[in-house]
Design goal:
With about 120 residues, the protein is mainly alpha-helical. Helix content is about 70%, strand content about 0%. The protein has one domain.
């Protein structure tokens, strides 16, 4: 398994957990299935991009900054969409904080991942 595949795996798993964190907001509970699916796709995209970047760059700080930026950017795109369940306000903090954390964790895990010698 290479860093891109590992990033996809970790990003997808953390995307599911990110989506399930919406259960803490009662106004979002009726939409939980769509939120989990969307967060999973967002995690997969972030995982692939961060894994590819981690494969090319050997610096942990750069990968962490890139992971944070990708996580925040993708979360911003979701937060900027209309959310009628939040009565017209955009839930930037509620969406972007977990998205940034996912980006950081995926960046850290992807950079620390070492391909086994048998797979190489």
């Amino acid at each position: 398994m290479n860093k891109v595949t590992f990033g996809l795996l970790i990003g997808g798993l953390l995307g599911v957990l990110d989506g399930l964190s919406a259960l803490f907001y009662p106004e979002a509970r009726p939409l939980i299935l769509g939120i989990v699916v969307g967060s999973t796709v967002k995690g997969l995209i972030a995982g692939a991009l961060i894994g590819y970047f981690a494969k090319k760059v050997k610096s942990m700080p750069l990968v962490l900054i890139f992971g944070l930026a990708i996580g925040l950017f993708l979360a911003f795109l979701v937060a900027a969409m209309p959310h009628p369940e939040f009565n017209g306000r955009h839930p930037y903090v509620e969406i972007m904080v977990p998205g940034g954390i996912v980006g950081l964790i995926v960046g850290f895990a992807a950079q620390r991942f070492r391909q086994s010698r048998a797979a190489a």
